[in-house]
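Forwarding the complex inputs:
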Amino acid sequence: MSIATKADPATPAGSASPLTRRRPFGDRSFQVLCLAAGLLVLIILALIAISMTQQSTTWFTTAGWSGVFSTNWDPAHNAYGALPFIYGTLITAAIAIVIAFPVSLGISLLLTEVLPGRFARPVVYVIDLLAVVPSVVWGLWGFLVLAPWLQKIYQSIASGLTGVPVLSTFFGGTSVSGTSFFTTGLILAIMITPIVTSLSREIIATVPTIDREGAYALGATRWEMIRGAVWPHSQAGVVGAVLLGLGRAMGETIAAALVIGSSATITTHLFNPGYSMPSVIANEFGEATVGEFRSALIGMGVLLFVLTIIINLSARAIVDRSARRTQGA
Amino acid sequence: MAIAGGQQTVDLREPSGWRRSKNQIATVGMWVAFAVMLVPLGFVLFTVIGKGASAISWQFLTAPIPINVLPVTFGGVGPAVYGTLVITGFASLMAIPLGVLGGVYINEYGGNQVLARVINFFADVMTGVPSIIMGLFIFTIWVLHYGYSGFAGSLALACLMLPIVIRSTYEMLRLVPDSLREASYALGATKARVTLTVVLPAAIGGIVSGALLAVARAAGETAPLVFTILVTQTLNKNLFSGANTALSTLIFQNATQPYTGAQARAWGSALTLIAIAFILMIVARLITARFARYDR
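Prediction (whole assembly, two chains):
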């Protein structure tokens, strides 16, 4: 194979002589076309970084380091502190991961270790169904159906927990609402479950059969085999998959914009309304015709872009490294 | 051990009680995880079909959007259906050919070059860039100069689809055996000819289904459109100038309306949107099952 791929297609056997360096024009232009299409990815990413940073310099320069990372958000008085939104983005994404991780891991283990291929396929179809439900439909359902229903549950939990030391700081509070950090976290968890599941499933599927058989041969039960053979092998990759899910959860816009409650506050009470970076951009952009307001919203887009790029890069690095290690083993 | 002890035999068939229970608890846990995923899916489908099915009719899909206070029996969401189809369609026209060419570059021309690996890596990273960023990006480089239009929305959706198409094309081309390429080179074909007439047709099933899944994802996207098409209520047949509308943005707007008519139109649009996405997904599955010659 190595010899065959090294055979230079630039001088195909049919050309006049092996010394001819020229290739037909169509052949060369097709290569250039493909290269251009590939480079488009890098160009778009670079343009995103450049153009959005340019549009947000007003905010970054006038607000300064302390202004950007302040808790004071008051567009009417030209105060554009992004901290409540950064907090909301992180906290809702964290809730989503805490819920989605065990569920996704359970489903991917079910698909790889328990169900035979024939029965696993319908389950995969169901996961794909979940993945194609548009974000805005989750938002519509969350806002009109789920949030009013959850409001009563939240209220009874909050009143039941008054006075309980630790739990009431998270699940208590006075302004309990159906549209809240926690509702957003739930919706985001539903939305990232398909991607975390399918990525972990791919990673778990790379565990060599011989490791599994070895564990069984030693008399392990299925669970012991998973703990002893599957998990050590796929741990790093699953962490990467969870990070990719985290990136998705942080960037999810429309569903969050509808169910987060639109209140720029930092609170430990998860049942209270809050705000996140993508949802404030989506909700306020129409109003933001003034220079600095719009600049602040685009600037928050830049922060979000940088955050998700960092998370994606590290997730990808972890997944690739674990994939290479399993192939090498 | 069995020889030494005589009576003492080790039972190899069944693990001890606690180990068995732990195993069973774990298995039950996995099924519970699956059930936990089914509950919201069933719940949302049940609600959307329950509330949306009564709204759907030919008139609903084609008639102009009435004012929000009118009940759902008046008018429909025709302009939004038109907008979704045309904006997504135009985005696909841009993103699918470019994405396929990009995938061809990475797998056929790039080889082990650093550039190909960098492009592949960043295409993968780009699939994780939030869709709202694509909307803001097109807003800053296009809308600020040329104004809101359906075309700007198409551009934003195309940016979203491009990396997905590149990655799925690359994955499919990787599965095409080298012997096919070698046989074509042996017949004296140029590289472009080999790629276009041998490699791409061999992988066409997977490429088409990957592209359809990208279209399905783009059709439901809202965030990239909010910043680029400046939602309107009237039909705008000109893709290249003036505000436009789409089903997803209509749902986003109507969700927070207090009027039952507006909400009913949102549910009807949600059902339409889900139906479009599901149909695309099923077609993609059928194509994969029918045409994919090299399965992974």
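Chain B has two domains: 16-52, 58-291.
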